[in-house]
Amino acid sequence: MTNSISEGHIQPSPWRVAATHIVVADRWIHLRADTCVDAAGRTIAPYYVLEPAEWISVLALNTDGEAIVVQEYRHGAGVVALGTIGGAVETNETPRDAALRELREETGYQAGEIIDLGATWANFGNHTNRVHHFLARDCSLVTDQSLDDGELISVCIHPLEGLGEQLQQSYHQLTWYKALSHL
């Protein structure tokens, strides 16, 4: 790719944060409002930044190689959607440990093998966290679900073929895509 920047053009660079104000901070959300100054000297305010915990997304496969996915209501979008197993990484927990915990809590399955597929930014425009993607293989049902208050999750067994088109959340699709390269 050719770089064709005009002479005198200001290059993008990190903004300077002139002030920050915590709007809300509780167990569910940490939101701040920054007053920023960009490379051209313009003030951008308020610029809201969400600071959630790191997330995990797990594509789990049972011993027959079929996908173990979940269906649940997603209030932000107002839809019941099919997705990969997921959740937040708790304080003092590694993403790998969170993936194994969420798999067991949401589905009752335990992985025979877990493969780290890397991480991507959840939404680098205004979120500070990343999504850690995992492939769980040779999963067997070992217990009942252990859901958090407010969770109602249906566990679905789905063939891998065609699954990507049924996943509505972009990072679920990315987990599915990354997992395919490890099969």
Give a verbal description of the structure:
This protein is α+β, with helices and mostly antiparallel strands and 183 residues long. 15% of the residues lie in helices and 43% in strands. The protein has three helices and eleven strands, in the order βββββββαββββαα. It is elongated, with a radius of gyration of 20 Å.
Question: How would you summarize this macromolecular structure in one to three sentences?
Answer:
With 183 residues, the chain is α+β, with helices and mostly antiparallel strands.
Helix and strand arrangement:
Layout: E1 16-25, E2 30-37, E3 43-50, E4 55-62, E5 67-74, E6 79-83, E7 85-88, H1 95-107, E8 109-110, E9 113-121, E10 130-141, E11 154-158, H2 163-166, H3 170-180
Parallel strand pairs: 4-10
Antiparallel strand pairs: 1-2, 2-3, 4-5, 4-7, 5-6, 5-11, 8-10, 9-10
